[in-house]
Amino acid sequence: MSGLPDTPDILRRIIASKVERVQERRRQISASQLESQLADAPPVRGFRAALEARIAVGQAGVIAEIKKASPSKGVLREDFDPAAIARSYARGGAACLSVLTEADFFAGADAHLEQARTACHCPVIRKDFIFDDYQVLEARVLGADCVLLIVAALDDAQLSALYQRARSLGMDVLVEVHDGAELDRALRLGGDLIGINNRDLRSFETTLETTARLAPSVPEGVRLVTESGIHTRDDVATMRARGIDAFLVGEAFMRAESPGDRLAELFD
Ligand SMILES: O=P(O)(O)OC[C@@H](O)[C@@H](O)c1c[nH]c2ccccc12
């Protein structure tokens, strides 16, 4: 785990539980065994490319999230069928999917990613708390097209090693930041897909001001994704008026009876 002094407590707790799970997993399947499964992994679907394709024709690029629960909101959806949700999202116009695989705080599972991936053609990001090379390898074997790296949870050496590893496996990387210092670190890394998390992990409050404030510091050529707290057509319009074209949305869709219909309503 990272020795960064200002990592939010919730991140520390999630990663501490994750460390145990990764150890356990490694006892079942070694890294070299996983390596040998790479050849059978489904081919990479371009994650960033799918976003860019939508944006190029004037649409928003939407990453639609599949998560059963979250630490701040508890269970979001009782009737939880990742394949059905994935199909609904694809019909509703999602460019990409985000699937939580973290079990203890988000009620996620690796199987959710596999189910969502095989149910539609959308590229998928493995949404998890990655600190170990093993998890990057595992993501690709599961069929992930992109991984999330959270700057607040990693030091520069870890960030760079995990980033290079993911890229060398052909995956895109969504590098997540929440403030200016983290954004600087993400840009130094050379990340070309940066997520600005509107949720403050200390208070769990979301404000789109976070994206509005940081966006001007994101250079051309870097795709910015606004993450968390997008609930209304007004939220979408506010962001698009500021030139933000890529969105990661979870709760607003998960609470809707038809997640895909809700997506189409928010982004038509
Ligand atoms: O449900 P929301 O508010 O629409 O947020 C989605 C997504 O941004 C959020 O789930 C998220 C952002 N960064 C994360 C890192 C890990 C787990 C989850 C997240």
UniProtKB/TrEMBL annotation:
Pathway recorded for this protein: Amino-acid biosynthesis; L-tryptophan biosynthesis; L-tryptophan from chorismate: step 4/5
Catalytic activity field: 1-(2-carboxyphenylamino)-1-deoxy-D-ribulose 5-phosphate + H(+) = (1S,2R)-1-C-(indol-3-yl)glycerol 3-phosphate + CO2 + H2O
Annotated EC: 4.1.1.48
InterPro entries attached to this UniProt entry: Aldolase_TIM, Indole-3-glycerol_P_synth, Indole-3-glycerol_P_synth_dom, Indole-3-GlycerolPSynthase_CS, RibuloseP-bd_barrel
Matching Pfam families: IGPS
Keywords: Amino-acid biosynthesis, Aromatic amino acid biosynthesis, Decarboxylase, Lyase, Tryptophan biosynthesis
GO biological process, one term: L-tryptophan biosynthetic process
Superkingdom in the source lineage: Bacteria
Example of a GO MF term: phosphoribosylanthranilate isomerase activity
Domain Indole-3-glycerol phosphate synthase per the UniProt entry, residue ranges: 11-264
Entries under PANTHER family matching the protein: INDOLE-3-GLYCEROL-PHOSPHATE SYNTHASE, TRYPTOPHAN BIOSYNTHESIS PROTEIN
Family of the protein in this entry: Belongs to the TrpC family.
Protein name: Indole-3-glycerol phosphate synthase
